[in-house]
């Protein structure tokens, strides 16, 4: 190393040390004055209060938050999610509300050249007044608002007032002014309050649709400051964005273009310092020092960075998720002005769409590996989004990864999730299919609306584009297929062409233009489902597909196996939560699906009759309410199992399975596999099995019974496939073990036999086919298959015995045994205790032993657990 190079490195390291020390000092207090001219941030979180406009008394408020949660915290309303309380709380959405806070800025802060008021999220129609001066009229829940506030701030106390107008009244007159009503493809999701009449109002407002309807959500129209508020103070310049463009990424090197955007107050010299730290926190390569000539206004400068032998980021199941940190610091005369950081994962990602014998492929390819997308759809995890904390995101997303999922679809009827959601997906390796927030509705085409959407989309794309988990931008949920198949165009009369033109302007022109400009490395997809205008939406030949004939169309479950799309991005089946969850929103007097309270927690008018129709096709009548809840979950899990295994068996023609839906936003009958209270339904346990990296899947095809083995592994797996036919008492009627090489990234039949030869005249109502794939003594996958429906099958009485053992890590081991076949074994604690079983809703084969682990939520003992344990099997439910 030359002397000059050594001096340069020492100087850079010294500067990094000084900046890091100053950063620590700067953040010691939100009101501390920064060294030199460094920008500072003053959070406005304290002293908030709220009231209904026209009322005199103020009540303490929490920001971020909303009117409903503040009223609840103040004891002014009952829990909106309990029983049918929501029916008595509709007045909240019709009222106007005020939030205010007072704060004092230090004299040194007031002297800064620029004082910007930043409101990261206002829901939705709000006037902002600072010291009595109106400085903003907000009209979009999904935008960030930044305002130059120095001229309005003063020495001593400052008062910030935000007045929220009722969105119901705000947009009520828009259909009349427009001259016609914009039809909503799902009237249940239109912004209406119980008892109100009139046209759907949801198309006219940029507000989360899930807050006021759908056939699974409560009817709430809320308001409030739902994202942080702060003042940013700066003098010479500030960094406004940092974006890392991955130009070339290989195992040998990563070539990055680091785009640094800044605002400058005047022409001046400055220095940009860039550093990259690896997953271990150590500096990678050499920090880059680049001289800049700042000019007034907003500008972008780009620096090239090369990283040798990078650690690549992979989706869950394909490799690790190493994350690098890129930091940009703006320095002037040795003094820090501003700094910002991005965390990135180095990988290549494309959506491969190539002509083939089936039409046109649709598959995600990461680091050259074609990934079969296994996952679920995501809706907001609470009706009030500020109640969703980082640990709650972690709990739900970790459950997805624990069940071998590698993709989550953020559905377009909810919200753009908080940063913690995407950070967690980065860490867990969950690819994110990201819808823009438009769903099942057609929208205005006036300039004001389009400009508003352009600002929203630009903000959100710039916020999320550096996440390695982000895989795809999608314009909307089901709008295109609604136009084609739901009869909407025929209801618009003379305005049909205008509405479709507006659709094209928004989803074919505006949104893709934003993505091309702000995030050109990712594919923009116009709608879900869609073929991106190349074919009919929902085609099995091209693009992605949603399939709802099973459930919504009451088609038999077997019709799932008639669908062979290129990518199934939505399909689902409903169930109720378990009794322990129902107890959190209902009373014993409500324990009947026909009761008023349970009807309120079943948003779909057709939901209960439809669920009962499906249940009665394959199952006997459940003997009581708890049994009905249990059977509804078994039915849901079995339905999605049929579909998911079918989709995986058809790899590579099909390259994605995202069922509807992973989570829920309140205690309700829904399509989720995890209920609102975090309890796994039967479907979540089933997903852990049908999404295993190596799946054994027996299937009847004509007169043959075929056993498929599907592998997501990237290398061949030597294994043994064991196929057994047992009767309900455990007698072996057929057994064959086959040694095989499970081929990578494939689905193949490794065993087949004529059905008659397998059964050999045995009563199909009294047998079970058991399949297992093992390697090196480890079981990779097991599966059972029945030749008769549960309604027809012989179900022996429950004979499950259990034994508990405490483990050194604080968990408990539960060992189970049954002399006869026990189907759908469900373990629960019913004395008020709670916890988590690592497996549940499984078949226990006769004479075999099953071991699961249990983690309690509170200190307990073996004796207490044994006494509280209830073991239910399918035979017990009727």
UniProtKB/TrEMBL annotation:
Secretion signal span: 1-28
Keywords for this protein: Glycoprotein, Glycosidase, Hydrolase, Lysosome, Secreted, Signal
Localisation: Lysosome; Secreted
MF GO annotations: beta-mannosidase activity
Ranges for domain Beta-mannosidase Ig-fold: 795-876
Domain called Mannosidase Ig/CBM-like: residue spans: 705-792
Name of a matching Pfam family: Glyco_hydro_2_N2
GO cellular component assignments: extracellular region; lysosome
Beta-mannosidase-like galactose-binding domain location: 48-227
Glycoside hydrolase family 2 immunoglobulin-like beta-sandwich domain ranges (all copies): 238-347
EC number: 3.2.1.25
Catalytic activity: Hydrolysis of terminal, non-reducing beta-D-mannose residues in beta-D-mannosides
SUPFAM superfamilies, per database record: (Trans)glycosidases, beta-Galactosidase/glucuronidase domain, Galactose-binding domain-like
Pathway connected to this protein: Glycan metabolism; N-glycan degradation
Domain of life: Bacteria
Main location, first listed in the record: other
UniProt record, GO biological process: carbohydrate metabolic process; glycoprotein catabolic process
Subunit structure: Homodimer.
Family: Belongs to the glycosyl hydrolase 2 family. Beta-mannosidase B subfamily.
PANTHER family cross-referenced by the UniProt entry: BETA-MANNOSIDASE
Protein name: Beta-mannosidase B
């Amino acid at each position: 190393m030359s002397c000059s190079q050594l001096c340069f490195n020492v100087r850079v390291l010294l500067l990094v040390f000084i900046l890091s020390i100053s950063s620590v000092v700067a953040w010691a207090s939100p009101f501390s004055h920064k060294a030199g001219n460094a920008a500072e941030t003053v959070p406005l979180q304290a002293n908030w209060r709220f009231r209904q406009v026209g009322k005199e008394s103020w009540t303490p408020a929490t920001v971020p938050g909303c009117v409903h949660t503040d009223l609840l915290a103040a004891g002014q309303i009952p829990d909106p999610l309990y029983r049918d309380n929501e029916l008595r709380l509709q007045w909240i959405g019709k009222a106007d509300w005020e939030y205010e806070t007072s704060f004092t800025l230090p004299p040194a802060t007031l002297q800064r050249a620029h004082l910007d008021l930043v409101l990261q999220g206002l829901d939705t129609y709000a006037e902002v007044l600072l010291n009595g001066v109106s400085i903003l009229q907000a009209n979009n829940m999904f935008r960030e608002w930044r305002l130059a506030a120095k001229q309005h701030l003063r020495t001593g106390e400052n008062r910030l007032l935000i007045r929220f107008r009722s969105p119901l009244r705000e947009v009520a007159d828009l259909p009349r002014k427009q001259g016609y009503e914009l039809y909503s493809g799902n009237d249940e999701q239109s912004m209406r309050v119980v008892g109100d009449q009139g046209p759907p109002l949801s198309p006219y407002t940029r507000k989360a649709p899930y807050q006021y309807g759908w056939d699974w959500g409560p009817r709430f129209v809320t308001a409030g400051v739902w994202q942080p508020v702060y003042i940013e103070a700066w003098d010479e310049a500030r960094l406004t964005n940092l974006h890392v463009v991955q130009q070339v990424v290989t195992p040998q090197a990563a070539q990055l273009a680091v785009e640094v955007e800044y605002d400058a107050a005047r022409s001046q010299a400055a220095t940009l310092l860039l550093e990259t730290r690896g997953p271990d926190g150590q500096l990678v390569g050499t920090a880059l020092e680049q001289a800049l000539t700042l000019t007034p206004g907003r500008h972008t400068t780009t620096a090239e960075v090369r990283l040798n032998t990078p650690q690549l980021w992979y989706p869950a199941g394909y490799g690790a998720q190493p994350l690098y940190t890129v930091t940009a610091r703006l320095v002037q005369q040795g003094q820090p002005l501003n700094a910002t950081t991005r965390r990135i994962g180095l990988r290549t990602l494309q959506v491969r769409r190539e002509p083939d014998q089936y039409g046109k492929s649709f598959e995600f390819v990461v680091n050259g590996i074609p990934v079969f997308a296994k996952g679920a759809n995501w809706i907001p995890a609470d009706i009030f989004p500020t109640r969703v904390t980082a640990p709650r995101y972690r709990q739900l997303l970790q459950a997805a990864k624990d069940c071998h999922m590698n993709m989550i679809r953020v559905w377009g009827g909810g919200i753009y999730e908080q940063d913690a959601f995407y950070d967690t997906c980065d860490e867990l390796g969950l690819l994110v299919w990201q819808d823009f927030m438009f769903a099942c509705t057609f929208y205005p085409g006036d300039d004001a609306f389009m400009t508003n959407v352009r600002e929203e989309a630009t903000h959100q794309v710039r916020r999320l584009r550096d996440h390695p988990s982000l895989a795809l931008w999608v314009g909307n949920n089901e709008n295109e297929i609604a136009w084609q198949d739901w009869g909407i165009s025929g209801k618009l009369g003379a305005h049909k062409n205008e509405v479709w033109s507006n659709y094209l302007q928004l989803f074919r022109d505006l949104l893709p233009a934003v993505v091309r400009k702000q995030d050109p490395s990712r594919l923009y997809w116009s709608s879900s489902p869609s073929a991106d205008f190349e074919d009919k939406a929902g085609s099995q030949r091209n693009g992605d597909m949603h399939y709802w004939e099973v459930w919504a169309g009451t088609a038999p479950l077997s019709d799932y196996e008639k669908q062979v799309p290129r990518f199934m991005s939505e399909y689902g089946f409903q169930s109720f939560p378990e009794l322990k969850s129902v107890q959190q929103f209902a009373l014993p007097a409500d324990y009947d699906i026909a009761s008023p309270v349970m009807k309120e927690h079943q948003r779909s008018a057709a939901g209960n009759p439809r669920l009962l129709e499906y249940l009665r096709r394959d199952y006997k009548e459940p003997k009581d309410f708890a049994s009905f809840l249990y059977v509804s979950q078994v039915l849901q899990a079995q339905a999605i199992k049929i579909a998911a295994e079918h989709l995986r068996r058809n790899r590579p023609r099909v390259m994605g399975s995202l069922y509807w839906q992973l989570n829920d936003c309140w205690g309700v009958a829904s399509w989720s596999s995890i209920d609102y209270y975090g309890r796994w339904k039967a479907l979540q346990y089933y997903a852990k099995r049908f999404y295993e990296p190596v799946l054994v899947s027996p299937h009847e095809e004509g007169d043959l019974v075929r056993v498929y083995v599907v592998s997501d592994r990237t290398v061949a797996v030597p294994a043994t496939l064991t196929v057994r036919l047992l009767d309900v008492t455990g007698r072996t009627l057929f057994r064959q073990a086959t040694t095989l090489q499970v081929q990578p990234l494939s689905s193949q039949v490794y065993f087949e036999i004529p059905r008659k030869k397998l059964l050999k005249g045995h009563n199909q109502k009294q047998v079970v086919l058991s399949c297992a794939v093992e390697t090196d003594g480890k079981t990779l996958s097991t599966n059972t298959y029945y030749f008769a429906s549960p309604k027809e099958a012989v179900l022996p009485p429950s004979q499950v015995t259990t034994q508990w053992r405490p483990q050194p890590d604080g968990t408990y081991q539960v060992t189970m045994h049954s002399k006869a076949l026990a189907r759908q074994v469900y373990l629960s604690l019913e004395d008020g205790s709670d916890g988590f079983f690592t497996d549940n809703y499984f078949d226990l084969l006769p004479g075999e032993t099953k071991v699961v682990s249990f983690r309690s939520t509170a200190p307990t003992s073996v004796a207490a657990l044994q006494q509280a344990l209830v073991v239910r099997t399918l035979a017990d439910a009727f």
